[in-house]
Design brief:
Strand order of the largest sheet: 1-3-2-4-6-5-10-11-9-7-8
GO molecular function: hydrolase activity, acting on carbon-nitrogen (but not peptide) bonds, in linear amides
Radius of gyration: 20 Å
Largest sheet: 11 strands, mixed
Pfam families: Amidase
Family: Belongs to the amidase family.
Mean pLDDT: 94
Protein name: Amidase domain-containing protein
Organism: Dipteronia dyeriana
Helix content: 25-40%
Oligomer: single chain
């Protein structure tokens, strides 16, 4: 098999030059790629589907997030493949092919920002832009062994980005190292340079780590040892997040399924959180794209066609309860973490699944994934997925969450932790060999 030198990451290549400026620009010399959900003046925004591209005209302006990167001194080299209509976390696209996971060949790259993650993981660009509604930055970052940042909801403009579900849509980004991640974030978020603020606590919810197939010690010990060295072990605390959420988010009772309570792989309150998120996502997707779907009847791939059909049938029932869940969860997690607390969770419940894994086999994995992904999704908190090397030759990641609006604090923290984490990873990998 001849390997695509671009790993199948790109939809089309073109060069957008950075602004020329006599001043030292923060992203000068860096290259980036853009998910095919962002408008670029003169190009059709394809949204991962040829029927969409066929029925839409070229954009007449460029998304502010892309412009900010160019104004910051970076050069764009093209648009990347994405899952159709941003409605998957797998990264498989039946029309344009599936970008190759450079960190785990034969495994899915994760979606829907699949091409953007692969372009960074394969060292084709220095960073890339994607979007995260249900997990589309965090999942491919974890699977491709790179950093992925989902900012606080509303912190980065989504103008010029095709909406999926506005209550959850965010513009996120990928990088191979935390310094680049931080540099990009400071431009996108328009943040001043600031000193590291010492975190007040690192909360490890033990129930969340029971959802992953990777031994929890392999994920948490690397981080905990780094935290102990830098800030002292007294700030590391343990909790049962599911019980806390159940007690503090009363509106969730509308979504707690009796059938799920006895299943080993679920945390009932987080499974309910996931149900609320996906219901509101379906409803907003229908409002955004239902008319186009029913008129055009696009050719959609397996899994996605079923989800889109389900979305088009969604009614307004219980939507107000979903909004209550969002409000209650944000308040509850803000109380739990305070201004400078960190919540530590697995990004996903295990290593990237194999390509073309049977959908029914993936159902348990998907359910556990959304229980974890919905925490930041529903609360609107910022989250960063941090690569932790390999376990059984497959990429492992952990996620750090901070309260809404704490993006600069979180970016600085990851950059500060990284050198210690690298040393602990090397030790852990020697032990696992």
């Amino acid at each position: 098999m001849t390997r695509d030198p671009d790993y199948g990451a790109f939809m089309e290549k073109f060069v957008l030059q950075p602004d020329s400026s006599p001043h030292k620009l923060p992203l000068k010399g860096l290259t980036f790629a853009v998910k095919d959900i962002f408008d670029v003046d003169g190009y059709v925004t394809g949204f991962g589907n040829p029927d969409w591209a066929r029925t839409h005209s070229a954009a007449t302006s460029t998304a502010p997030a892309v412009l900010a990167m160019l104004q910051g001194g970076a050069t764009s080299i093209g648009k990347t493949v994405m899952d159709e209509m941003a409605y998957s976390i797998n990264g498989e696209n039946k029309h344009y092919g599936t970008p190759m996971n450079p960190y785990a060949l034969g495994r899915i790259p994760g979606g829907s920002s699949s091409g953007s993650a692969v372009a960074v993981g394969a060292k084709l660009v220095d960073f890339s832009l994607g979007t995260d509604t249900g997990g589309s930055i965090r999942v491919p970052a974890s699977y491709c062994g790179i950093f992925g940042f989902r900012p606080s909801h509303g912190a980065v403009s989504t103008d010029g980005v095709i909406p999926m579900a506005q209550s959850f849509d965010t513009v996120g980004w990928f990088a191979r190292d935390p310094t680049t991640l931080n540099r990009v974030g400071r431009v996108l978020l328009q943040l001043p340079d600031m000193h590291l603020v010492k975190p007040s606590q690192f909360i490890i919810p033990e129930d969340c780590f029971q959802l992953t197939s990777i031994p929890s010690d392999r994920i948490t010990q690397v981080l905990v040892k780094s935290v102990e060295k830098l800030f002292g072990g007294h700030i590391v605390k343990h909790a049962i997040l599911g019980d806390y959420v159940k007690d503090r988010v009363p509106s969730l009772k509308h979504f707690i399924s009796e059938g799920n309570k006895d299943q080993e792989y679920t945390i009932p309150s987080l499974a309910a959180l996931s149900s609320a998120m996906r219901l509101l996502q379906r409803y907003e997707f229908k409002n955004n794209h239902g008319e186009w779907v029913t008129t055009v009847k696009p050719d959609l791939g397996p899994g996605i066609s079923e989800r889109v059909r389900e979305a088009v049938r969604t009614t307004a029932e219980s939507i107000d309860v979903c909004q209550s869940v969002k409000t209650e969860l944000r308040a509850a997690l803000t109380d739990l973490l305070g201004d400078y607390g960190i919540l530590v969770i697995p990004t996903v419940p295990g290593p990237p699944p194999k390509l073309q894994t049977d959908a029914t086999k993936l159902e348990s994995f998907r359910a556990r994934a959304f229980s974890l992904l919905s925490i930041a999704g529903v609360s609107g908190f910022c989250q960063v997925s941090v690569p932790l090397g390999l376990y059984d030759d497959l990429p492992v990641a952990v996620s750090l969450l901070a309260k809404h609006g704490s993006d600069g604090f979180l970016l600085n923290l990851v950059e500060t932790l990284h050198n210690n984490i690298k040393k602990e990873i090397e030790t852990a990998e020697k032990i696992s060999c």
